[in-house]
Amino acid sequence: MQVTPLIWIITIAVTILFFVYEFFAHVRKPHEPSIGESARWSAFYIGLALLFGVGIGTVSGWTYGGEYFAGYLAEKALSVDNLFVFLIVMTGFAVPRKYQQKVLMVGIIIALILRGGFIAIGATLIANFSWVFYIFGALLLVLAYKQAFGGHDSNPADGRFMKLVRRVLPVTPEYHRDQLTVKLDGKRFVTPMLLTIIAIGFVDLVFAVDSIPAIYGLTSEAYIVFTANAFALMGLRQLFFLIGGLLQRLVYLAQGLAVILAFIGVKLVFHALHVNELPFINGGRPLLWVPEIPIWFSLVFIGATILVATVASLAKTRGGHGAGGRAVQEASSGEEADTAAGTRR
């Protein structure tokens, strides 16, 4: 796949412009998006991502098109899991609903920057060391196990990292609109808003560790890795408000993602064996009898796994209300508390 520096520059510039537009058009003025607004923009970004994939397939061939769609599906599924953790973080910090857009926007931008760095590192490693596929594969298998049996029981807002941040930074006990810092009695304090953004940035770093090796298991093209990640993150803010009430019903999401990560991990190990150069494995010669999993099978497998996990989750939780619903209510009550505090001030 031939990607010139000019194409890279245009792609990155357009991506930045989209986020700048998002901020000034939707996020700058604090408000809670309506279902209609969230649905329209979610559909727009998903449609744009699909159209871009068709463009890649038409211009560069459907092998690359298939790699893009498989990568986009995998990254979108991982992004929904990311949303669940964002919900836990914002509930832990009691972020008022009208300020959650700003937190999400900053968190998504941090995620894209971090993933961009990981993409560059991954591309360099893959280009120079074929044995890195063994490491990526083993990492994904470990992460698949943790995803299946770890869950999201812990609250990142109360984790050791945030406790360390609280010891280092003076923090106000209440929100001051959407300000990150505030000056009180001549002393500068950080607000819970800044703590929330720091926590989400830390979560983004953790998620990038499984996100980037996963998509490199589906394609070795850095351009496809970047664009699939960018489109998966675009519209994530709107998707949060659109399906926020449904997040608690996706009870099998973790297991579905674990299956996907394990599948890609096995695919990476198979590829590593197929291009093997390690002297202590088969004398440093490739194991050509090891099958290469075709991209069409990866695309079908990932799509089917997401579908089964979603349908099974919705069937199991039909008519039920879980922790996610309570989290939304608690976040909303945080907004009421903030409003009351603002009235008292």
Beta-strand percent range: under 5%
Average pLDDT taken over every residue: 81
Unreliable spans are: 321-345
The H-and-E topology, N to C, reads as: HHHHHHEEHHHHHH
* Structure summary, number of beta strands: 2
For the biggest sheet, the summary is: 2 strands, antiparallel
Q: Any idea what the shape is?
A: globular
**End-to-end span in angstroms?**
59 Å
Oligomer: single chain
Describe the protein's architecture and organization:
The chain is mostly helical and 345 residues long. Helices cover 72% and strands 2% of the residues. Strand 1 and strand 2 form a beta hairpin. The longest helix is centred in the first third of the chain and has 31 residues.
How is the topology of this model organized?
Layout: H1 5-27, H2 35-60, H3 62-92, H4 100-128, H5 132-150, H6 160-168, E1 181-184, E2 187-190, H7 192-216, H8 222-233, H9 236-243, H10 253-274, H11 295-316, H12 323-344
Antiparallel strand pairs: 1-2
Helix pairs in contact: 1-4, 2-3, 2-9, 3-7, 3-8, 3-10, 3-11, 3-12, 4-7, 4-8, 5-7, 5-10, 7-10, 10-11
